[in-house]
Amino acid sequence: MQNALIVLGMHRSGTSALAGVLSLLGADPGTSLLPAQEGVNPKGFWEHAELVAIHDKLLDAFGSSWDDISPLPDHWWRGPTADSFRAMLLEVLHHEFDTASLWLAKDPRLCRLLPLWLDLLDELGCHPHFLISLRNPADVAHSLGRRDNLAEPESCMLWLTYMLEAERLTRDKPRIFVSYDRLLADWRQIIEQVGTGFSLRWPVPVGAAAPAIDAFLDPALRHADDIALSSHPACRMAEEAFQALMNQNTDTRPILDRLQHQMLELEELVAPWSKCLSLLRRQTVQCEAQNILLQAEVARVKATLSWKITGPLRATWNLLRRKS
Q: Which residues of 125-144 are buried (b: 16+ CB within 10 A; e: fewer)?
């Protein structure tokens, strides 16, 4: 039976760092990865581009997006809308991982789409191991504010939505919570914990992978330290959930269940506004992209010979217009 490592976590929570380490240890992430992006993830996202594109289209089909806290419809993964996306995901997974003994899937959207993925993994006859990356929601909010201009309470609500769903849906599954800070401080201990906990033998021995992992994990990429959240209810809830998730030695399910219930109540109040803000952000991104294309086209036209030759004519025409 195949083994799959499924990396879960909120955006900007260290999932890329964790997936990168697992890949360097030989877990196969596939051949079509999103390119690294300077200023965002200079060491790479380690996300399969086709899977991410399908996930985005799937969310869009339900009127949602990665930054929308609104819950998806009940049993959404069993309806006809999801069936076509199920087929697309299966096609990619078969194409990429049929011959892999240990493969890797990482996309924060998986936190929202786990019900469908659990069915897919079962259909593939694959044994999943879930790694949930934990990062302080204050650091996540700071990072999302810089990257996406999200307000702190909105970031905390997104953090809660992703993390509480990931925790709830993997309770009866093989899983390990991984602290992003601990991964940067001592990745060897984390990898030993993962290998022992999941009874895995890494395709690339730890000693052989160590130089590459040491070069890959740059603590300087961690941009946020000692940031305090505001007293907004969503921020307080996120802090409480983070402490509960970090404390896996005791049964924190009652705390997390209570927070999940409170989050659902809060979502009913703010979800419509969240959807509007998400739409405005997407429109802004589209306008910025169109503006970049227009500026490039203007620069191209101004570099042509015809533009340079007709320069004196335009200057004369502008002078005549001002005089008239």
A: ebebbbbbbbbbbbbbbbbb
Token digits for 3?
């083994």
Of residues 57, 75, 76, the one with CA closest to residue 66: 57
Higher pLDDT, 283 or 175: 175
Backbone angle region of 44, left / alpha / beta, with phi > 0 → left and psi within -120 to 50 → alpha: left
CA distances from 106 to 59, 103, 126, 178, 324 (A): 17, 10, 16, 14, 64
Q: Tell me, what's the pLDDT at 148?
A: 87
Give the Å distances, CA to CA, from 319 to 302, 310, 311.
Answer: 20, 14, 12
- Radius of gyration over every alpha carbon of the chain, rounded to an integer in angstroms: 23
pLDDT-derived band at 223, boundaries 50, 70, 90: low
Give whole-number Cα distances, 32 to 5, 27, 53, 91, in Å: 17, 15, 11, 14
Give the Cα separation of 247 and 253 in Å (integer).
Answer: 11
Q: Is the pLDDT of residue 78 over 60?
A: yes
Q: pLDDT digit string (tens) for 262-286?
A: 988 887 776 666 656 666 656 555 5
Set out the domains of the chain in order of their start, with CATH numbers.
Answer: 3-282 (3.40.50.300)
**Distance in angstroms (rounded) separating the CA atoms of residues 244 and 182:** 17
Instruction: State the chain's mean pLDDT as an integer.
Output: 88
When comparing pLDDT for 248 and 73, which is higher? 73
Q: CB burial class (10 A; 0-12, 13-18, 19+) of residue 316? A: exposed
Considering the chain, what percentage of its residues have pLDDT values greater than 90?
66
Residue type, 56: D
Joined together, the tokens standing for residue 251 give: 């049964």
